[in-house]
Amino acid sequence: MDVPLFRDPTQPLSARARDLLAALTPEERLAMLHQHQPAVDRLGLGPFHTGAEALHGVAWLGRATVFPQSVGLAATWDPELVRHVGDVVSTEVRAKRAADPSVSLNVWAPVVNTLRHPAWGRNEEGYSEDPHVTAHLATAYCRGLRGDHERVWRTTPTLKHFLAYNNETDRSSTS
User: Fold this and answer.
1) What's the average pLDDT block by block, 10 residues per block, for the chain (175 residues)?
2) d(Cα 74, Cα 168) in Å, to the nearest integer?
3) pTM, rounded to two decimals
4) Shortest CA distance to 33 belongs to which of 22, 24, 44?
5) By Cβ atoms counted within 10 A, which residue in 55, 79, 136, 172 is the most buried?
6) Dihedral of CA 121/125/126/127: which sign?
7) Is residue 147 classed as helix, strand or coil in its secondary structure?
C-alpha cells in the first residue's frame, strides 16, 4: 500500500505540505481556517484545534506552574530568566499534551504590543512601553518556548497582539 507523500517523514516538509494541500478539497481547506478543525476521514486526518494560551504558564489547563504576568517578568530586566520561564512553560505544555492529545503545541505567546496607554485593559500581558525592551524579552520567551533542538520545536510560539492592539474602540478600523 502506497503511503501518501504528506505522511512520509523522510520527505521535505515543503513537499509534504504541498501534497496535503493538493489532496484537500477547497471546502476542506476553508474548514481549516478556524481554531477548531474537523476530521478529514478520507485522508485519515483527525479533528484538531490550534492554540494554547501560554502568556504566563498553562495553569488554565489544570495543575501547572503559574509565572508572573509579562509586565512583571519585564521588571526583572533579565532576558535569560524570561527564556528559562519559556522553557518551563513549553515543557509543561508538552506534559499536558502527553496527557491530552487535544492540547495544542501552537502557543499564543508572547504579546509584543507595546504598552502605549495605561488604561488599556491588557497591559499586564505586554512587557514594556519600549519596543527595544519588548523585542529582547519577547525573543527570549520565544526561544524558551521553542526549545533548543535544531529541527523539532517543543512548542510553536505565535505572537499575540502584534501592533497597536491597545486601541480598544473599533481597533480593526481606526488608527
Assistant:
1) 89 95 96 88 90 89 93 96 97 95 92 82 87 95 95 92 70 68
2) 23
3) 0.81
4) 24
5) 55
6) positive
7) coil
